[in-house]
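Data card: per-record layout.
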Amino acid sequence: MALVQVDVTEGVATVTLDRPEAMNALNRALRLELAETVRRLDADPSIRVLILTGAGTRAFSAGLDLKELASDSSAMADTTATAADANPCRAIEQCARPVIGAINGVAITGGFELALACDILIASENARFADTHARVGIMPGWGLSQKLSRLIGIFRAKELSLTGNFLDAATAERWGLVNRVVPAGELLPAARRLAADIASVDPAFAAAYKRLIDDGFALPFGAALALETERSTAANAAVTPEAVAARRAAVQARGRTQGA
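The structure for this 260-residue chain is written out next.
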């Protein structure tokens, strides 16, 4: 039985974690299947955007399957695997296609890290986030300890990580952790509308722009500006006046449509 469901419509792949009875906890089988699914979709030229969500209404993902970790001595090593074929967060981070996280319920610890691997987050009003690594006694290995402080500030990140307390959707939006919060019934429609907007951009350009943002974010500001100059100089040298004119007309037409 598949643990990851995929629905593809007009270049948008909706990827659903499908262990609702276990709050979509990331056991080894689900981790491997999710990583393989993301890599397969990323290699498909017809796919332009991915949406990642969880089955049911309770959980996006409750994180690593603690029952498995408590009963299998080899499972712990798997949780810190760095290769994209075993680590779903790394597979998402390396995906050239933009990934929208549609957070339908709780995102706890490993599930929180999975959300942070996405490029854009839209949360249901039912979403809640928690980092319980300290309470479980397992150090994060998928990036949470470094990403969270860069997103919401070091003081807030320490509060969440050292208490294990939940962060509600409204506060997550106010702190800049998620792009927006929508009613539960509007979560996937909102994510699909956003995905359609992204899918209308040239996919090669979108991939290059996403890579520039991510690579620059990992650098000091001065080095990031130099990186932008280097890549823009190379890329823009290949842009012709005719291409600019055609795209300008398309942007103007879209602006008139959106403003109507």
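Known properties of this structure: The chain has two domains: 4-199, 219-259. The radius of gyration is 19 Å.

See the next section for split statistics.
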